[in-house]
Each structure stands twice: as structure tokens, then as C-alpha cells.
Amino acid sequence: MRLEISLATDGPPGPAGGDGSSGARGPVDAELDAPAGTALHQVHDALLALLGEVAPAQARWWVDGAPVDPGAVLGHPPLVRGALLVARPDDAARPPSPGPVEVTAACGPGAGAVHRLPLGEHVVGRDPRAGVGLLDPDASRRHAALQVHAEGVRV
Q: What was the pLDDT predicted at 131?
């Protein structure tokens, strides 16, 4: 079975970028050839190797903001063609969020970047001062503003 996916990292050890990200690496396109029924844990080390030195030593895989069960089978949701797998440090090693909201870039040049937002207003855009920096040249400098309140988020 051949599976086309994208891989990215969230956080250390990669250097934090001027885009406001937490040191995430943009996506790496990958093709996996594995027998039918192969579980994620069976290709875990090979996936980390594709990310190189920026991969966290103890990683857990996430798709669409949710952790993926290591027993999940390749080719079945959420590990389907085109999925973006994000390697995050294992929960035990992950620093607590400084705020109630996490925003994850789902696609584009900065895919996989996670921005942890405290209460207050945060600009999303290409402006270097934006709290949620975008690397996409098609995005405006001040693409949107997120107002994070204890009750929720307003765009």
C-alpha cells in the first residue's frame, strides 16, 4: 500500500521563528510503502527519521489537532492520503499552554505551526509583529484578529 502524507513538527528542538511559531517545521511531503494493516507505531521511527534533527526525541503524532492512537492503521482515518501528521513532544515533556487557546496552521508554508494564545487580541497575518504569524504570501499583513476571552474566541 502506498500512502502520501505530509509531516511537520511542533515546538522544540527547532528554533523559534520570527513568525511567532513555537519552533515548528513546515511540512515535509512523504510517501510510505507499507503492507496493508500496518499500524502507526510500526512506522513511527521511520517517520521521525524523515523529519531529521528537528523531530522531538519522544514524539506523539497528531492529525487535525487530535492525538492519533499508535495502533491506528495506515490508510484508515485519520491516517489517509493527504493527511498532515504533526510530531509533538510527548505530553509529559510538553510545556503547559500559556493561554486557553491553541491555533494550528493546517496548510500552507507554515503548516503544523502551533500558536498558544493567552487572553487578549491577537493579529493573524504576515506582519512580523502579528501574534499568529503566517508565511503564506497570499495572506495579508493583518489577515484577521482573534479576540480570546474566557468565554471563547471571536474573529
A: 83
Count of Cβ atoms closer than 10 Å to residue 15 Cβ: 10
| Residue 15 pLDDT level (bands cut at 50, 70, 90) | very low
Of 67, 13, 88, 7, whose CA–CA distance to 43 is shortest? 7
User: Which of 139, 114, 115, 111 minimizes the C-alpha distance to 126?
Assistant: 139
pTM exceeds 0.70 for this model: no
Residue 48: what are its φ and ψ, rounded to 5°?
-60, -40
Which of 99, 141, 106, 138 has its CA nearest to residue 121?
Answer: 99
Measured CA distances, 76 to 35, 36, 39, 62, 135 (Å): 13, 10, 10, 15, 31
